[in-house]
Amino acid sequence: MSDTSVQMNEKKAMSKQHAKPSGQGLPAWWLVLIRELADLWVGGKALNLMLIYSVIMGIMVYVFSSNSELSLIPPKESVYETLKNAMAISLFIGLIIGADSLSGERDRATLESLLLTPISRRQIMVGKFLAGISQWPVAFVIVMPFMNLLSQGDEILLPAFFWGAVTGTALVVAYTGLGMLVSFWSASNKTSYFISLGIYILFLVPAQLPGRAQTGATGQFLQWVNPLAAVNHFLSKHLVNYEPVSLFWTWLVPPGAFALLVIILLLFYAGPGLRLEAGNKSWAWLKKLSRIMGLATILGLVLAFCVSAFPALAGSQAQTQSIESTDLQITIDLDAVVVKTSDKVEYHTVVTNNGTEASAPLIVAMNVVNLDAQGDTVDPEDWSPKRTQYIASLAPGESISLDWVINTILDGNYMVYMVLIPTPSNSEATSQPLATSGIHLTVTPFTRLNPRGVLPYAIGGPLLLLVIIFYVYRRRNQQIDMGGSA
Amino acid sequence: MTTSSNAQPTNSANVLVAEDLRKSYGPRRALQGLSFTLKAGRILGFLGPNGAGKTTSIRILTTMMEPEAGHFTIDGIPSDRPEEIRRRIGVLPENLGFPRQMTGLEYLTYYGQLYGRTAVEAREYGLMLLEDVGLQQRGKSLIGSYSHGMRQRIGIARALVNDPVVVFLDEPTLGLDPRGQLELLELIEQIAQERGTGVVLCSHLLTEIEKVCDDVVILNLGQIVARGSVAEVIGRVQRNIVLRNTLRLQVPPAAVLEARQILEAMPNIVKVTPMGEMEGWLEIEPMEPSNGNPPTAYQLNNKILSALIRAKIPILSFGVEGGRLQDVFLHLTEESIK
Q1: Is this prediction's ipTM beyond 0.85?
Q2: Whole-prediction pTM value?
Q3: Fold of A324-444
Q4: Does B121 touch chain A (CB under 8 A)?
């Protein structure tokens, strides 16, 4: 027998040996996961999104640190804000990846060949879902050095890492799964993206409403049922205000329940029902859903506005009251000062009771007026950790000295003055506030080039990702034959 | 082509049996009782005009859609066990999309693994399939760089990764140049002959169906209007319709006038016409057979040839128009085309 015929026989024998699948392969969900991960990370989509994410985070954190106003925010609040922003961007990325997962394959006509295999639809869903949430660990690792820098050694860092990982994972699971559900129901990728974007805005907008809109029973409830707002509230209370978890654990219920519901729908509804076409009925249903969502967004905004405006309307009802006389005096120990932005200015006020009777309870309040902006008032909350001080009472002839600190945030000319307010004795009476002489505060600009050491990370992170992308592409190109089109 | 031993039902065994399949889209009945069988190693041409129900049939038979009534078996597996059926079929859908960022080998390896092969098995089998479909030189190229013909080939290779018992090919030659069409048809014949796989071939190119298919099913308005071997279908239809075949023959240009005179003088010839710019060609329109019997028409053909031979006129070419699958198809689907 010739060598050639021996080789052919060997080849045929091998063919026979491997003709039937052995059935010893890996689980289908794992194969789909590996394929999807390769598509996302080697194909470049996820890497490119991560590059954009790292650039946005770098700019955000740099601005956070270099901006004279924002840089005065305490470390724990800086860490919280950075984590919040990182999560918001990651959720968007998760939603986009989820929204493309099924309708994108329908558009590209690649879903049919996957559905023609004997693997269960649920395993396809599991593989795609796990690949979709793979971006979150990477995004979290990218933001960790920024959080570390901004914390400046504050003890908030470890709890922020822990709760950021826990709540971020729950939200990314929920958002990515929701994107996949939308993709499951959508006949085209455009529809899927459009609805997913609507959902993102629907959840994001209420969390961005002014503080007053988020207070009161209605505001609190609206915040609680919104998983993103609930997580933000929990992190804010626990990380910034050091409130114990036991007081606010209920705010973790909505994101957890949301994530659980989405997983159940994915595995037990969408998984078994995955098919080639989204179907006409689903299309009509989606149209209705998008209309309802749009309406709900508008209603939510109107409601939030009403909640916000109501207290202001109530407070506008003026009353005629009698003015009580006073023998009180307030003095200040500084008249003019020139400083740079971010400098601290310290001064004292002395309050004296020159009368013959003990005074009513007293409040001393700080006021800052911008002289360069036609007298616009400046919110003292941003300028000083302690804007008012309370004095229970002053005995006749008694004096009390009060310490004050101003953090100069923005450059410009300001007038700082203090007001002493005696508390009226009853609801029918009022009192005469007393003002001190002003402190003419001149703040000159000052910018640090590398605030809090953020710059190397802000530039280095994206650069490192670029290097990784370049390496991945280069390695991929080495694996394939780059022959042109036939 | 690599010979595989897997799709081994004997050539007499039915690998696909469809019985009374029905499907409607709202008020429109897309399928009205589809029944047919396919034996191992044979190629079944699945024909019909647009909207005849071909795609619906293929979707049902490949478990992508459920019928409202009726059932089918593939390799003896009933249609209520779709996952088992999917293990035994290979499908090349019409307008199949491909992942542009995967190489041909990666694509076949991935799908091989999805059918239960280990990574090593799937890769080895993928390499063999690439060789079978003539893509061994481009296995490591991205599918995005493939031509349309190469994509159809890799699609057929993907349909074979599980060594199926039945393969469904929906318009596999669509968009290919003549050489590409010919090569792909040869590949399909090889699949059926060497693997013993039953092939269901949907196509609008009737000449290719006639060339490669053993059997044919013609669908019209959701119903089967003809079924059987290609020769049977053509013969049966010819017997059922009144034959008025047009004959065409070619003689030397110098003999055209003499040939025309001889033919016009014959009984049962209605008209003899020179074919315009085609020098030497004559078109002969015979009279309708009085008893509607095809043998009468065949005898007339012999008489025409005998008369010309007796007159020592060389016959360069002779053909009967109207006896091809295309004519049968047009006749049977005339109603829906109108």
Answers
A1: no
A2: 0.72
A3: Immunoglobulin-like (2.60.40)
A4: yes
